[in-house]
## 1
Amino acid sequence: MACTFETYLKDQNLSLNTIHSYVFAEKQYKERYEKLTTQNLRDYKVFLIENYKPQTVNLRIRAINCYLEYSHKEEWKLTSVRTQQKPFLENVISEADYLYFKNCLKRDNEMYWYFVVRFLAATGARISELLQFKVEHVKVGYLDLYSKGGKLRRVYIPSALQKEAIQWFKDTNYQSGFIFINKTGKKMTARGIAAQLKHYANLYNLNAEVVYPHSFRHRFAKSFLDRYNDISMLADLMGHESIETTRIYLRKTSTEQQAIINQVVDW
């Protein structure tokens, strides 16, 4: 019996969010068109362009192209649409605000959330990857992740964070297993972590728009390049398929651009 598209996606080691997104696109296509044909695919792309933002259009196109792979129709793949990138990074927490945020959490003995923020910003992990960290990974200093096609990505844990986390484990009798779990012993959800970070942002009078899990991954990339200007190595650390994806971190944030303008423009 042939596997379903969802089962096929799970076999590709894709994240749960990606699987849900791709299955939604398959369902949306099938609700509009009875058959998988090149004309219907072109019509679906037009429908997407007329109703969604370019980023969403490209996400759905990637989903349908994956469905075409599953259906052995790779030659029918759709091309993505061009998106105009902004010349600056948006909604990235500044290094000063990051330091202030983690120091406030530590001061108030909110050590669980202190380490959520520390691990995100010091490893560059995605939220889904953060939830994979175990005590055992901290002790060896890295987490190995395998992406589609069996490609290995190693997420390193800096020695300072490693030492600090191990002491926390001792203080709280954390001996093994997943680090970021809830009161029932189950892994935290991405939504739950994001909501709690917003709560603390508001508590400490930070702009909640820049306090979300992926913002700390951006912070990792920006801070890394500021200290060690090797974009090729950063691409590997971030797990980017193309170095072009990583080049966005060479841009300044809009806040940084404003500060430079204020300092430079005196005419």
## 2
Amino acid sequence: MMDKNLNTLLIVDDAVENLTVLDALLRPLYQIRVATSGEKALRIAVSEPRPDLILLDVMMPGMDGYQVFDYLRADPSTRDIPVIFVTAMDSPEAELRGLDAGAVDYITKPLVPAIVLARVRTQLELKQARDWLSNKNVLLEAEVARRMLENEITQEVSIRALAHLAETRDPETGNHILRTQSYVHELALRLRDHPRFRTTLSDRFITLLSRSAPLHDIGKVGIPDAILQKPGPLTAVEWEIMKTHARIGAEAIEHAERDADRPVEFLGLAKEIAHWHHEKWNGSGYPDGLSGEAIPISARLMAIADVFDALISPRVYKPPMPLEEARDIITAGRGNHFDPDAADAFLQGFDAFAGIASSYLDAPTP
């Protein structure tokens, strides 16, 4: 029975007398496996126990040592096993060829026992060090991935918490933040290959856009209840106050950016969305009267998501609108309120957006 605590060596040589010499020298210290041909060596190399080091004769009939080495390096399961070439060719050219091929060492015959033992021990120690570093790197990468995932989860939970805090001021919004977040994500996916959007809507941008979308109305925390929850039409003065929620939200996010030790990607998009999602393609929106391409893509997509959801959702001042009527309003707003290509993507995928709406229905009012 082989001792699992000992390193395993694979000795490959077509001459039985050479195998006998190496086996007698190395077996007291290591587990030994032998092969008398290149083909057999390749079969043993992928079987258990896997060799920690291979001593490979160069001159063999059929498949020579260089060919065996090439096969070992081509197989992902054996490419990292160190190989020492063992050969009677003692010319510098032969040794250089073996080392250039990728062998870790080169031993010439006739064998000197002390040299063989020293070379084998050195290469096993080096392999052990490489394996230790590799395992450390795997553990480190796993820990980094775990922490990144934990940070992302914490970030998303914090965003949701802030968004829900704003939502408590306007209790009839219900699942509004979940629906608008999903609308924006779906819309971005549908536009990612469009010539006007493909350079911006990368996978990373879409992830950050979706993550930041719930903060679009965070500025409503600064609007008085008497205005925010008024059941009837707002006066002109009240409407001007209501419109300040875009600026309030952007300023709050900007303060958070300044407090951060380093730039936080999603906050930039969150600030764009909060600030400009009420701008209109024709320049008649607020707070800055931006038009066309001057409106950030993030805000243009949120404009469609926010208007559509506001139309189909109940509010203190109106009942929900049927999906078909909301679709007609988006159609009418194409090129006026909304980016025409973004509106087209929404209308072409309308069934998907209607499905999102039905997936996050608000609880009925008691």
## 3
Amino acid sequence: MVKKTGGSWIEFSHHNIKEGVYYTPVVRTFTDEQWRAKIREMKELGMTYLTLLCSSLCYSDRAEAYFPTDLYPAPADFGCKNPIETLLDEADKQGMKVFLSVGYYGDCYHAYENMISAEVQARAFKAMEQLTALYGHHPSFFGWYLPDEVGINPNYPPEFIHYVNSYAAFAHSLDKTKKMFIAPYGTRKVITDDRYIRDLEALDADFVAYQDEVGVRKSTPDETGAFFEALRKAHDKAGRSALWADVETFTFEGDTYRSPLIAADADRLYRQLSAVSDYVDEILVYSYLGMMNKPGTIAYCGHPDSIAFYNGYKALLDAGKLK
């Protein structure tokens, strides 16, 4: 059985300006109703999980927040004045589950420094307190996503395990029911030896969605099945975190990481989903936003090929090729 995508990342502004050329300027102007329409589009395709990439966006010289806070100012050029409230309210109505981001509270280009910084942690913890106070009543507020990542090569860096466990402990002090979600990269470099299994046993994360790294041109759909088969065995031995996949729906218009993200196509996505479906509990994509658009949507954003990508994926669902 080939699994359909069960959810997607969502973002109010893409951190990499070059990558977000086709959609960031547009989504920043989205109104409340456009965001609601975009969330309904994802629900119509059978998605349950929405992962907010960042609740604030911080660079070395500027920062903005997507909720009422004294940490950073709200962006003046936004069409939706309280986008997280809109996201959660519509997700409530659609019966969806949302992971709110614990980032970026340090420069988004310096993940390692953010993980080990006491100053960044203090800001992030204050944000978590404020987000919980503002939005904790929403049924769709399911858990937290930790966006600062360092690659696995071939094991988890000790600093990353400490980062995850420290944030998880604080999250559970605010609300013990909230889940913890991470999506590491370096999937092709993982060596699932005894040390790796011990790392998984020590890692306080409920869900680990490994990036398939097809969009960033590090792997191919012909390779990823073997990676996830090995990860399945390791996660079963560790018996702690659920194994998910982060399947990339994009490619680059030019050089990797230095050019706009554009839509891939349904044939490639089907091969990606087929490769990992037997081994994972759930599949999320990065990303629906900007890579797929329902024909006639009032919330269009992304490359022109995004409509064809949507139609191709919808055809796979309608034909019963995805479950």
